[in-house]
Amino acid sequence: MKSLVIHEVFRAIARSRGDRIAVECRGRTLTYRELDARSDALSVDIRRNHIERGAHIAILTPRSIDAIVAMLAILKAGCAYVPIDGTYPEAVLRDAMMRSRAAAVMTGGEMTRLSRDRSPRPAPTSDGPETAAYVMFTSGTTGEPKGVVVPHRGVVRLVRDTNYIRIREEDTFLLHSPLTFDASTFEIWGALLNGATLVVYPEPAFDPNVLADTIRSREVTILWLTAGLFHALARRAVESLDGLTTLLAGGDVIHPDAVERIFARYPSITLINGYGPTENTTFTCCHRMTAGSPRGPSIPIGRPITGTSVHVWGPNREPVARGEVGELYTGGLGVALGYLDAPEATAAAFVPDPDHPSQMLYRTGDLVRELPDGALDFVGRSDSLVKVRGYRVSTTEVQQRIHRIDGVEGAVVRAEDDGSGSRSLIAYVQSARDPRSMKQHIKRALEAALPPYMVPNVIHVRATFPLNANGKVDARALAGANET
Q: Region (Disordered) spans which residues (predicted)?
């Protein structure tokens, strides 16, 4: 049986492809043999510092070769890595360290053991596939950070022998995501567990010119983008993607017009819409597209990737008929071990699989419907259903309607208190056109297509949307952004 332990798979790759370039950053390179040796040496240092197996070790190093060495070393030492943004204010960093229960911290190539008291934790007896590989903090929809404990099996299942992408050792991945964002799991281990090359994006902030130069000069073939960056590049800087063979996007709804713009310039490229929460190790479903693929009015999230099961259930966890909307539950090798030190949140989100009681399903909170061909179509969040003027409205549905309007580059719809105790729909729209005329254009189009209670009371038009560090639209910053 193939190994489902990250560093065991990596070591086998290093032995067979030792002279190939594993990772590159700013002209510095490490071969697989060198990366294996350096991470071995660092893992010995971890053990010499009496760090217990099963302990959590924080990584404050930004995207770099040192960070990759640290991740591998931590795993080889039988521990789990916890990426933390080192640019946080000191008080926030201290809180993040406490939440992560870190026994030590890696900064660059140096490790510092933390001496504060911690509650005892059971140490694993082996480096099995159920062992925690990393803890990734995600706020989800509540705003309260939760540490998702991801096992080795989830990562290996994500990138090895899977059905949504073919990764060759000739491929080059770009590590563009922050290490604190779970897309980096696909980027890092997609390369290193398949003998491919990982190129580290050289700048802390996104720049389409730097992206284009990096793709071209380093011959990047596989790139992952958030939906926000995907839409922005497709509409305003599509030429920056020259050279790619496979482009993946996700994190939000992918819009058909952006897909068509990509195929118009790159008819031989493969596009993949990747859907999945951190709690199911980055991807749950993927929808693979080529220029000749049939496409409808929306881009599906597709089918479950290898090693993943999905269920579309109603309010009482009963299966719904094909075409009906239900909540998506997902199971299989990608399901996380739960939330760190949060038993109540874990019990609410991770439920027993009725078909396999010893296994767990993750309750995504996402509403989907199964299409006639078996692919899943994303409908919205279960918490996107709001009461407006006594009517039940899906803000996701209104967003999707706005996206179909000519001239719209992006849309976010929220229900906000109007000051009188009632809620009103507010639409934030990204468009390069004149804001005043665009507002009227959108209003007329929505009034012709939707019942009055679904038409937003207020429409704000902006030239660009603020993006957060992960490249997603920063919904909280929208209200404070200047209108143009």
A: 109-131
